[in-house]
Amino acid sequence: MKIKNVIVVCDFANITGGAERVAITSAVSLAETGSNVVMFTGKGPVCDELKNSNVRVICLNQEEAIKDSNRLRGIIRGLYNRSARQEIEKLLKEYDPNDTVIHMHGWSKVLSSSIFIPIKRMGFKVLVTMHDYFLQCPNGCCYDFQKKEICERKAMSVDCVLCNCDKRNYIYKLYRIIRQIGMLRLVNGTELYIAFISKFNKNVSEKRIPFHYKKMMILNPINVKLQTIVPASDNKKYLYIGRLSYEKGIDFFCEGITKAGVSGIVIGSGDRLEDLKNKYPKIEFVGWKQQTEMKEYILQARALVFPSVWYEGAPLTIPEVMGGYCAKSKNKNIHCRLSSFYEYFLQGKLDRENCYSCKYACEMRYSDITIGDYWGIERVHPELFHEKKWRDRVYDGISSILVNTEKGMELVKETASLELVSSDYARIAANNGQLREPSHYSEDREKILRLYHTDGYDAVDKEFKKRLGRKRVALTLKASIPIGLKKKLKELVRKG
């Protein structure tokens, strides 16, 4: 089949999220190669990228069904959008199904499954990019909003139908169930190809889609320009980019930023924008921005935070930020004794509460294997360090693997890339106290946490350095010795 025409179908004619960005980018890119491309959409406005391209745009200028001011009209359109069906049927009459492909990026929010009726009857091939999970889940995201957890129920089972997992109430869940029944009936029988956008996306979906389809893997197109250097170590703000909904983890971001006492920037829009603004007044909410506008905020950021809690398909934000920008940091050698976090961590003053009564801190373990650092290996295995490769690896880190079961032993043997040396629990635990016993509780922990919650971590660090007193000078001088020289001195001492 030689493809001459591509009809790109998407609910929205502007970029409101990753699916729309991929749909519009794909349409514009295909048109630039000389293909005849039509963009069929439900809701405007039409973005500049489409207006300035050779893509023919058909926009119905309708409202999102669930947000329609006329509730009854919204419900009817959500289940069966008659005008969308009529308009796409009129469009399809212009094309030959033997040289035309319909590329679907989303239809559940505005267009509805009614568009599949003429598509199926006229024999057009359909490629669906799996941006979400609407083909298998009434909620579209395999997430229980009431319990705030991933949903593993079988879609459309009795358990699924009876469960109130909608972010609003059970009435909306019933609407989604009815919509799902209609969608499954209308989509089934179409010559359907599904493009998974990541291995994870494929693993979650492929066995749960309840009708026949052909599958392929097509990664989302990422527009990565020449890298811009970001002075990340000098920046103070933490950045969130995405839809302002619970499953995206916006609540965790805002709560974490507030508790840590640091600055945050939120790029994104959604129904919860005003509520979040009121709840977290110290966080900067700037609304949704075009890609070109995001640059100034990325340049201000110390790090991008991506706290999503649902089954993401293949989010664009992470590779775009990582690919288009790279962090520039000031490399400084800091002696471990000068690091408040390092010292407090090693002293057990920053551990979780249950670390002080951990029942797994002993030789008898419940897991098949236990993986950790091999502290002090150069002392308990001096014979290894006659070889240069082992001497060098001490500084990079050597891991210990405790094999606790026969299954664990099989797993280790199957991993051919590992370079193994036999040891035992006594030697591994000799310099790793937490393998032997729980952390020891310190009263300093309460003081550190109080100071942190009151004034932030900068205050904790300041208090730590104050306690060091004159030792700080000596440790600073020690830290100034180049690492290469330290290695050579240690080798000389070891050789005697």
Q: Could you characterize the architecture of this molecule?
A:
The protein has 496 residues and is of the alpha/beta class. It folds into three domains: 213 residues, Glycogen Phosphorylase B (Rossmann fold, 3-Layer(aba) Sandwich); 100 residues, 3-Layer(aba) Sandwich (Rossmann fold); 77 residues, no CATH class. 38% of the residues lie in helices and 15% in strands. It has 21 helices and 17 strands. The strands form five sheets. The protein has a seven-stranded parallel beta sheet with strand order 3-2-1-4-5-8-9. A hairpin with a 4-residue loop joins strand 6 and strand 7. The longest helix is centred in the middle third of the chain and has 18 residues. The radius of gyration is 29 Å and the shape is elongated. It starts with a strand and ends with a helix. The mean pLDDT is 87.
